[in-house]
Design brief:
About 35% of the residues lie in helices and about 15% in strands. The protein contains 9 helices and 14 strands. The chain has a 7-stranded mixed β-sheet with strand order 2-10-9-8-5-3-4, with helices on both faces. It binds pyridoxal-5'-phosphate.
Length: about 350
């Protein structure tokens, strides 16, 4: 077997090694049942235990209050871009969107199919290099909800805390790239959703925490588009992504064993600090995000020129530092260092950056 690289991929992304090893075994035979996890009926005893534990561990990990449903959905985070307004933006109503990058603007675009999507703030003119403050934000008079993207995967910016929103509106959040990378006060949200493939599992499953009073749709909707359908059936209305739910559940157990979200946040801060330290050490690198808005999980930066960026990527890859190419809309480099990404990989990249700057600076 080849050695595993330090995988800086933005998503699908690195998974915890102990979880992968356990999954290797369980794919063959889980719980001495003689059947692999991907081969069990979603209504059988073995999978029932898997999904119940995944929910219980999610609740324990994030302190999910009893009046929130934990839903396992499909269609990627991108399907939440329409499912949220379909369920919660009334005909003729307005929802406010905080536009901090490509994912936020895609979310706002889908809301416009159902009602008015008011862009209350946008940092697009600044190249999405920061998180807007209250002075840059202009809410509509009575929004149904305010949607924001807690971490902007492509640009490498992150909200330090939830935005303050008008009374009467609930907060809806796409946390796809930083969910459970730090403690979260679920009560501040009406709906919090995330595709699993960055911080908490494989592609193909979406986690949604939905406050109970928001489950019923504001309009007639097909069965599979309603949050209530999944809430009433414990995410088992149809065949759920069983392997994805299994793997997500195992990641939750791993996060609990690692000490929970506060401990994980500390580690993530330390890891990010190594890379921002290397960026700030001289004039060679430039961080793509404004310093006050830097993401702890997607670290974006450039060298003095696109040609040197290309050299950087080539030499880094040769040293087992994989997946560092920035998103095509930003260029440069992006180091995605989610929960499961090891500190040793950040140390290796920081060392590489220092050496590379000395050689090419
Ligand atoms: C990756 C990502 C998405 C898209 O997720 P899909 O599961 O591919 O639909 C949406 N929002 C954010 C913030 C992301 O990082």
């Amino acid at each position: 077997m080849t050695e595993r690289a330090f995988n800086f991929s933005a998503g699908p992304a690195v998974l915890p090694e102990p979880v992968l090893r356990e999954a290797q075994r369980d794919l063959w035979d889980i719980a001495d049942s003689g059947v692999g996890i991907a081969e069990h009926s979603h209504r059988g005893k073995v999978f029932t235990r898997v999904i119940e534990e995944a929910e219980a561990d999610c609740r324990a990990l994030a302190g999910v209050p009893a009046n929130y449903k934990v839903l396992f959905l499909q269609g990627g985070a991108s399907s939440q871009f329409f499912m949220l307004p379909a369920n919660r933006l009334p005909e003729g109503g307005t929802a406010d969107y905080l536009d901090t990058g490509s994912w936020s603007s895609k979310a706002a675009k889908e809301a416009a199919y159902y009602g008015t999507a008011h862009v209350a703030a946008s940092t697009k003119a600044a190249g999405y290099d920061h998180i807007p403050d209250a002075a840059e934000t202009n809410y509509s008079s009575d929004p149904a909800y305010v949607h924001f993207t807690s971490n902007n995967t492509i640009f490498g910016t992150q909200w330090k805390t939830e935005p303050e929103v008008p009374a009467g509106a609930f907060v809806a959040c796409d946390a796809s790239s930083d969910i459970f990378s730090r403690p979260v006060d679920v009560e501040r949200y009406g709906i919090l959703y995330a595709g699993a493939q960055k911080n908490i599992g494989p592609a193909g499953v979406v986690l949604a925490l939905v406050r109970e009073d928001l489950l019923e749709p504001v309009r007639e909707l097909p069965t599979m588009q309603r949050y209530a359908t999944f809430a009433e059936s414990d995410s088992l209305y149809n065949t759920p992504p069983t392997f994805g739910i299994y793997l997500m559940g195992r990641v939750f157990k791993w996060l609990l064993a690692e000490g929970g979200l506060a401990a994980v946040a500390k580690r993530n801060e330390d890891k990010a600090g190594l890379l921002y330290g290397a960026i700030d050490a001289g004039e060679f690198y430039r961080g793509a995000a404004r310093a006050d808005s830097r993401s702890l999980v997607n670290v974006t930066f450039t060298t003095p020129s696109p040609e040197i960026d290309a050299r950087f990527l080539e030499e880094a890859a040769a040293q087992g530092l994989a997946g560092l190419k920035g998103h095509r809309s930003v260029g440069g480099m992006r180091a995605s260092i989610y929960n499961a990404f090891p500190r040793a990989g950040c140390e290796a990249l920081a060392r590489f950056m220092t050496d590379f700057a000395a050689k090419h600076g």
